[in-house]
Amino acid sequence: MEVKQIEAVDTHNLRHKILRPHQEPSDLIYPGDDDEGSFHLGAFVNDELVSVASFYIDAHPEIKDEFQYRLRGMATLKEHRGQGYSLALLNTAIPIIEKNNIHVLWCNARKSALGFYEKVGFKVISDEFEIEPIGAHYLMEKRI
Length: 144
Description:
The structure is a single chain. The chain contains three helices and eight strands; from the N terminus they run βαβββαβαβββ. Helix 2 (85-99) links the parallel strand 4 and strand 5 (104-110). The chain has a single domain (2-143), classed as Aminopeptidase (3-Layer(aba) Sandwich). It has helices at residues 12-19, 85-99, 114-119, and strands spanning 2-6, 39-45, 48-57, 69-76, 104-110, 123-124, 129-131, 135-143. Strands 1, 2, 3, 4, 5, 6, 7 and 8 form an eight-stranded mixed sheet that branches. The protein is 20% helix and 35% strand.
């Protein structure tokens, strides 16, 4: 497995297939995808992109730190889950975030992924909330 920095457009197929199959592919262009400071990582196995994650300088109003990074669009192909690819993406991203003197990473985590995020050091900081039409989520943060 190899982790590489990729372009936002390279994330769209997995975002669509795994996270939002009910939406049009054009809806998977997230605000901030091409902003300065945003970056996207992919995990490759035998040159196949199997896992992606995107990171944005984006402040959540419920988090007090002036500067924050947001994790969004983390997705791994079903047949590659549980093999450490998402963790490898996070372990690659954290030094990049720290280099920018930012010490908090947050995300809106799907309820179904709560266990993964807690396992890698994220803490729930909100009540459960709904994102239509995706489902139940929690605001989570990781101090780095």
